């Protein structure tokens, strides 16, 4: 009788561990590999990162968050990693190589090159209440919201926040901390 009780407890513990592992992978944390150089110098090709999939279940992405998303109904079906620039309800435009939010020049959080190809953002882009405008940090080598094959990203398409780079170990969004994140009016 004692052996049956121990085997039952052991089996329940194994099932519980399997269930918890499933929950962590499905709803908590996922590992992925960066493809391409569109987020350089913050993230480079073949960097391994952990995605915090739980955070955006309780909050919304903020400006300058680095997000991981999987575009639905678009050309490709792999994860894409970009920086949030435009938030729901905002108007985004790129002119003279810079990003403008609601007519005000965006004070970038990281050093980026002047944008050569404005793409769809050459004209004013108005974001719906669940859409985000994303750009790669390597602005002139990035397939992002400026182009129709990516477009605006809906909250539903967002997998999570790029959280930790595994080698070298670093909290991804800490790399950019310390600078002003507000939209700043350009003085002429």
Automatic annotation (TrEMBL):
Its main location: membrane. GO terms for biological process: signal peptide processing. The keyword Ligase does not apply. It is an enzyme of class 3 (hydrolase). It holds the Pfam family Peptidase_S26. Keywords: Hydrolase, Membrane, Protease, Transmembrane, Transmembrane helix. This is Signal peptidase I. The lineage of its organism: Bacteria, Bacillati, Bacillota, Clostridia, Lachnospirales.
